[in-house]
Amino acid sequence: MHTEPLLIAGLIEVCRATIAANSEHLCALDRAIGDGDHGTNMQRGCEAVSAEEANLSSLPLPDAVEKIGLTLVMNIGGAAGPLYGTLLMEMGRELRAEESGGAFPIILKRAIDAVARRGRATAGDKTLLDVLYPVQDALAHRSRLSDIARRAELSANDTAPMKAMRGRAAYLGDRSIGHVDPGASSCALLTMAICRYLEE
Ligand code: ADP
Ligand code: MG
Ligand code: MG
C-alpha cells in the first residue's frame, strides 16, 4: 500500500501552518497553567516533520505515520512530545495491522489508549485526551467532518472547568480550574485544520 503523496504533504503543511499561526496563543495558554512553551514545542515538532516531508511522502502510509511520530518525539520536547509521538507511532503500527481488517475509528481508539497509558492519564484529567476521545467518538459515529471539527473545538473549551490531574498543570491543583488546557487546544486546532483540509 502506498501513500497518496499529495495527501500526506498537504496534511503535514496544514498542521504546520495551523501550529505556526497559533503558537503564541498556545504559549499564552501554557503560561497560565504551565511553563509557557507549548506553542514553541509544537512548532519545533511540526517544522521538523515539514523538513522531512519529501522523504515521508515517498513512504507507504503506515511507515510515514510511524516516522512522523518518531520525529515528533525527538523534536517537540516536553510532555507533549512523547504523547503526540505515541499517538502517531501507534497509529502507524495499527495502520500496518489494518491490512488485516481494522477500521480507522478502531485504529484511532487504540492509538489514543496508548497515549493514555503513556501519560498514565484518563478522560477528565484536563489533557489532550479530552479532545482525542470525543473526536474518536464522533468519527466512530460517522459524523460529518464539520461536526467532528466543532466537537473538537467544544471539547477543548470544556477542559476549562476541569482540574488538572496530570502534567505541570496538576501542580496548581484547584488553580488550574478556569483555564483551557494547552494540549487540548493544540489538539483541537489540528483536528479542525485537518477536517477543513479533508473537506476541500
Ligand atoms: P511541558 O508541560 O513539558 O512543558 P507542553 O507544554 O508541550 O509540555 O505540553 C503540555 C500539555 O501536555 C498539557 O497541556 C497536556 O495536554 C499534555 N500533558 C501533560 N502531561 C500529560 C499526561 N501525563 N498525560 C496526558 N497529557 C499530558
Ligand atoms: Mg509547557
Ligand atoms: Mg516545558
Characteristics:
9 helices, DhaK_L_YcgS, binds adenosine-5'-diphosphate, 0% strand, Serine Threonine Protein Phosphatase 5, Tetratricopeptide repeat, mainly alpha
Give a description of the structure.
The chain is mainly alpha-helical and about 200 residues long. The protein has one domain (about 5-200): Alpha Horseshoe (Serine Threonine Protein Phosphatase 5, Tetratricopeptide repeat). Helix content is about 70%, strand content about 0%. The chain has nine helices and no strands. The longest helix has 29 residues, at about 5-35. The radius of gyration is 16 Å and the shape is globular. The mean pLDDT is about 95. The structure holds adenosine-5'-diphosphate and magnesium ion (MG) (2 copies). The site of one magnesium ion has 6 residues, from loops.
